[in-house]
Amino acid sequence: MEMEEFDKSRNFTDEAEIFKVLGHPVRLKIVAGLCTRECNVKHIWECLGLPQATVSQHLALLKNKGIIEGKRDGVEVHYTVVHPLAKKLIDVLG
């Protein structure tokens, strides 16, 4: 195998970070659910059967990494997936 077969110009840093963040089963479930519809925290933790604090911590990490975005609606925040690679990954996982 020759070195010319590899694209040296791509470092995949951003992609690796997305894979690392989505490497947790709960975060994958959250992102998969948010790919189908916009949800608030209460709906997510009720669906997953997890404590609200646990879900909020996962949502905070996903939001900080730019994978999801929250829109305030009164006292509620509705989350949706905004990162295209995250959406593609969920599509591939089916």
TrEMBL record:
InterPro entries referenced in this protein's UniProt entry, alphabetically: ArsR-like_HTH, HTH_ArsR_DNA-bd_dom, Metal_resp_trans_reg, WH-like_DNA-bd_sf, WH_DNA-bd_sf
SMART domains reported in the protein's UniProt record: HTH_ARSR
A Pfam cross-reference name: HTH_5
Transcription regulation keyword on record: yes
UniProt keyword annotations, A-Z: DNA-binding, Transcription, Transcription regulation
Entry GO MF terms: DNA binding; DNA-binding transcription factor activity
Domain HTH arsR-type as annotated: residue spans: 7-94
Protein's name according to its UniProt entry: Helix-turn-helix transcriptional regulator, ArsR family
Organism expressing this protein natively: Geobacter sulfurreducens (strain ATCC 51573 / DSM 12127 / PCA)
